[in-house]
Structures are given as structure tokens and as C-alpha cells.
């Protein structure tokens, strides 16, 4: 007899995407407001050290970003045990590479939803792994998704499986979500950048992402991509509807938010690592963009997690 799923437990890597966590939280909160027996979301930031116990009535979600740290020996052994036992696991986008690098997908025979941009890398690591171009796949043991907004579709589909179709439909309506896409929905094809101007903007954004702790000036960015500062500003307005400085600031603030939500790193250290010269500068910029201070953001996170983890200044 299959054990009913009563809890969703999210393991949060330090670079976990804030959007995907927020979508899971929204689905679970809405579901429990309608049905107290709906799965409860439990958060476990891996930066806290150690691993939580996992019960048979839990569905385990692995939430990573684009460059998750490799699995520790303890994490690998724990996940290997979960996979062998048939524990329901959900892995998104780069989390599949994480498992593949650790040798945990060698026995996988059912197709997994692989983000198109990761297909070649995963094929090299696991040539025997059947890949799907669906937005998500659901299996008895290991389920997978390409992440992003498709996480909402996957969460609603799993809510229907773990509770009822009716509850999933009510949650979608309560969240004013578009009609959930079924598991047969396919990913959109990758769009190749055509224009030289778009390539220049793309190169500049890559430089921004690689230089978060010590931000480059607009003149430095322009020099690196081979255009004038005025040209770079014109290209950013054309393709991103923002000037480079504003886009760079928002990129750094979103990186800071991800760290606040998914790690136990101190607020001061997060600010410094995201290119802010002081705690007051970080707090002011964060509040100006998100409407709350970094300290309030983290307090809200730990309150939602039941008070675990504490807050480190």
C-alpha cells in the first residue's frame, strides 16, 4: 500500500532560485487554506549543515540554481538511499546535472524532463538516460521539471496526485494562475540571438553576472564589449528597456534575495558579496526595490519555516 504524501520537504541549495521556492510556497499555502490535509511545505537550507530526516510520507524537492555546489558525501549517500527506496523526489533543471555528476542517475530508466540548454551536458554524463523535452515528467520515484514558471504546473500536477484534482483546480483559481499545462506540454525551442546588438548586450550581462561582488562601471563594461558607453546604454534600452546601471543593480539585488532566502550567510556578508559597500547602502537599495529590508525578508522566511535557522546579522 502506498503511503499518502502529507509533507513536501524542500532542500535549498545556496543558489536556489527564489522564483521556484516562491511558487512552491504559494501552492502549498493556498492548498492548506482550502484543505488542512494538503501537503505542508518544510524548508531545509543546506547551508545550515547536516541533513534532515526524511519520512515515507514526504515528497522531497531539490531546489538549486544554475551553479550548485557539488554534493557532499553525506548528501550523495542520503539521496542514493532515497532513490533506491523509491522515495518520491523532484529535481529541477541543473539539479539533474548535480545527480548525474554524483553518479546517481545510472539506473534511471524512465525519461526525465531535461531543459534544452542542459541536454548535451547531461547526455555526456549519462548517455543511457532517456531525455524528455516535456516541461515536466512525473514518475513514482524521481520526477523532474525544467524549472522557472513550469514549476507551478508541476506543483499543481503533484498536488492533484498527492491530494485531489479538485484541490489543484481550486488552488489554480485562487492564485489566478493560467490554465495548468499538462505533463504532455513541450518546452519552447531555444531562440538563437541574431543581431550584433543583442549579442553585445548578452556579453555585457554575462560580465555583470561574473562580477557581482566587485561591480564594473558602465565605462568598463562598454570597453570590455567593444562599444562606447553611449552605445551600450542605447543597446540596453533597446533590448532590455533599462540603462546598464539599473539592470546591474537589479541583478545584484535579486542575487542577494536568493542568498537571503536559501542560505544562512549573514546579511552583512551577503551585502558585501553582492557589491554593496555598507550595510546601510544594501538595506536602502533592497528596500527601494523589494519594499522591505533584508532583515525583514529573512525574518519572514524563517517565520514561514517555523522559526528554524535563526537570523544572523
Would you kindly provide a brief summary of this structure?
It is built from 13 helices and eight strands.
Account of the protein in words:
This protein is an alpha/beta fold and about 325 residues long. It has helices spanning about 20-35, 75-85, 95-100, 120-125, 150-160, 165-175, 195-210, 220-225, 230-240, 245-260, 265-275, 280-290, 295-305, and strands at about 5-10, 40-45, 60-65, 90, 110-115, 130, 135, 140-145. It folds into two domains: about 5-175, 3-Layer(aba) Sandwich (Rossmann fold), CATH 3.40.50; about 195-305, Arc Repressor Mutant, subunit A (Orthogonal Bundle), CATH 1.10.10. The protein is about 50% helix and about 10% strand. Strands 2-1-3-4-8-7 form a six-stranded mixed β-sheet, with helices on both faces. The protein has a two-stranded parallel ribbon with strand order 5-6. Helix 1 crosses helix 6 (about 165-175) and helix 7 (about 195-210) crosses helix 8. Mean pLDDT is about 90; it is low at about 310-313.
| Beginning-to-end CA distance, first to last residue | 47 Å
Strand content: 5-15%
Profile the largest sheet: 6 strands, mixed
Number of helix segments? 13
Shape: globular
CATH fold group of the largest domain: Rossmann fold
Low-confidence stretches: 308-313
Q: Total number of β-strand segments?
A: 8
Q: Spell the H/E element sequence.
A: EHEEHEHEHEEEHHHHHHHHH
CATH architecture of the largest domain: 3-Layer(aba) Sandwich
Considering the protein shown, what is the CATH homologous superfamily of the largest domain? Class I glutamine amidotransferase (GATase) domain
In what order do the strands lie side by side in the largest sheet?
A: 2-1-3-4-8-7
User: How confident is the prediction overall: mean pLDDT?
Assistant: 88
What is the number of domains?
A: 2
Helix content: 40-55%
Global Rg: 21 Å
- Based on secondary structure, the structural category is alpha/beta
CATH class of the largest domain: Alpha Beta
Amino acid at each position: 500500500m502506498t503511503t499518502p504524501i502529507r509533507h513536501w520537504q524542500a532542500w535549498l541549495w545556496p543558489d536556489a532560485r527564489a522564483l521556484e521556492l516562491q511558487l512552491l510556497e504559494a501552492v502549498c499555502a493556498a492548498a492548506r487554506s482550502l484543505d488542512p490535509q494538503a501537503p505542508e511545505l518544510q524548508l531545509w537550507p543546506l547551508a545550515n549543515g547536516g541533513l534532515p530526516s526524511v519520512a515515507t510520507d514526504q515528497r522531497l524537492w531539490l531546489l538549486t540554481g544554475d551553479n550548485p555546489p557539488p554534493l557532499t558525501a553525506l548528501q550523495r549517500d542520503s539521496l542514493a538511499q532515497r532513490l533506491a527506496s523509491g522515495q518520491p523526489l523532484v529535481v529541477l533543471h541543473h539539479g539533474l546535472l548535480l545527480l548525474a555528476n554524483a553518479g546517481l542517475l545510472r539506473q534511471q530508466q524512465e525519461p526525465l524532463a531535461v531543459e534544452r540548454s542542459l541536454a548535451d551536458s547531461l547526455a555526456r554524463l549519462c548517455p543511457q538516460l532517456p531525455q524528455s523535452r516535456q516541461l515536466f515528467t512525473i514518475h513514482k520515484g524521481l520526477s523532474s521539471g525544467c524549472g522557472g514558471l513550469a514549476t507551478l504546473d508541476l506543483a499543481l500536477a503533484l498536488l492533484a496526485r498527492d491530494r485531489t484534482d479538485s484541490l489543484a483546480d481550486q488552488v489554480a483559481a485562487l492564485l489566478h494562475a493560467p490554465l495548468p499545462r499538462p505533463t504532455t506540454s513541450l518546452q519552447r525551442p531555444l531562440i538563437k540571438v541574431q543581431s550584433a546588438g543583442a549579442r553585445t548586450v548578452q556579453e555585457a550581462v554575462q560580465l555583470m553576472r561574473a562580477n557581482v561582488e566587485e561591480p564594473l562601471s558602465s565605462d568598463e563594461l562598454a570597453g570590455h564589449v567593444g562599444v562606447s558607453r553611449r552605445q551600450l546604454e542605447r543597446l540596453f534600452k533597446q533590448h532590455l528597456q533599462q540603462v546598464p546601471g539599473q539592470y546591474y543593480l537589479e541583478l545584484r539585488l535579486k542575487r542577494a534575495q536568493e542568498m537571503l532566502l536559501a542560505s544562512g550567510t549573514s546579511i552583512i556578508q551577503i551585502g558585501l558579496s553582492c557589491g554593496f559597500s555598507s550595510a546601510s547602502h544594501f538595506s536602502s537599495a533592497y528596500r527601494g526595490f523589494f519594499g522591505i529590508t533584508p532583515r525583514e525578508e529573512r525574518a519572514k522566511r524563517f517565520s514561514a519555516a517555523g522559526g528554524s535557522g535563526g537570523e544572523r546579522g
